[in-house]
Amino acid sequence: MVKYNVLDCRIIELDKHHSDRKGNLSVYENGKTLSFDVKRVYYLYDVPGGESRGAHAHKKLEQLIVAVSGSFRVTLDDGKEKKSFTLKRPYEALYVKPGIWRDLDDFSSGSVCLVLASREYEPEDYIRNYEEFIMYRMDI
Length: 140
Ligand code: TYD
Fold this sequence. Notes:
Bound molecules: thymidine-5'-diphosphate
Largest sheet: 5 strands, antiparallel
Strand content: over 45%
Order of helices and strands: EEEEEEEEEEEEH
Strand order of the largest sheet: 1-9-6-11-4
Radius of gyration: 15 Å
Helix content: under 10%
Number of strands: 12
Number of helices: 1
Distance between the termini: 7 Å
């Protein structure tokens, strides 16, 4: 298994079709935008100010995280290094590789966090305990 670190995770720009008169549209297309196909879409909304989400890693899942409305911060952690990203533009997506711990916080009022995921929902793919995550990183 490939051991990714936070430097392998990056912001990508989605294709955007902007019109001064009629608003904007951004798109993710399987087989075109990135190498993974989207199998699942979910979104977080109505997150109360001061709340945080995430606090887990995935063993296999790849994700793209987008602030389709408002803004929030995503902090990625590979067990050695951390990197924070503030997402605030609907055409910017944070590509999160497998094996990376993520914390989401600083949600603005009315923000919506859209997640495009490479796999179906699999509870066994989650690592929710930070010590377990560190052990997992040492093993892979
Ligand atoms: P969780 O992954 O803990 O959310 P977050 O990391 O954003 O805080 O998921 C919250 C709840 O939603 C949990 O009970 C599992 C459920 N859930 C699904 O049923 N399907 C899904 O695709 C996701 C992402 C979560």
